[in-house]
Amino acid sequence: MPKILLAEDDNDMRKFLVRALENAGYEVTSYDNGLSAYNRLCEEPFTLLLTDIVMPEMDGIELARRATELDPDIKVMFITGFAAVALNPDSDAPKNAKVLSKPFHLRDLVTQVERMLAA
Fold it and tell me: Ranges for the Response regulatory domain (predicted)?
């Protein structure tokens, strides 16, 4: 089963996303900041990193960059209200990362996750 690591600093949004992904059959581990999520990535592999961009301690782009250094095969999806930041070619965001702009419907999230994991 694919394992998803979720990094989202908004508590309500994080709980909402975890519940939706678990209901879709995924194993989800979540953190409220990028540094804690990165520390977990150092301990075990995940199939997908689902991360907000703007977070305390380590932003999502830095987290994604470090995650792909640890595991070049990890898939990355940003969930953000700042899509232009992630899509900026000057950012350090992994080139194969997908961006899902807030607000989004949970069905869209699950569909995008399914597509990424099937690729």
Answer: 3-117
Query: SS3 of 93, please?
Result: coil
pLDDT attached to residue 101:
84
Angle at which helix 11-23 crosses helix 106-118, to 10 degrees, equals: 60
Report d(CA 44, CA 56) in Å as an integer: 22
Q: Of 41, 55, 56, 36, which is closest to residue 4 (Cα–Cα)?
A: 41
What is the span of the domain harbouring residue 9? 3-118
Which phi and psi (to 5°) does residue 107 adopt? -60, -40
pTM (2 d.p.): 0.91
CATH number at residue 15: 3.40.50.2300
The length of the chain is 119
Q: How many domains does the chain have?
A: 1
The whole-angstrom separation of Cα 69 and Cα 101 is 25
Residue 30 identity (one-letter amino acid): S
CA atoms within 13 A on the CB side of 70: 22
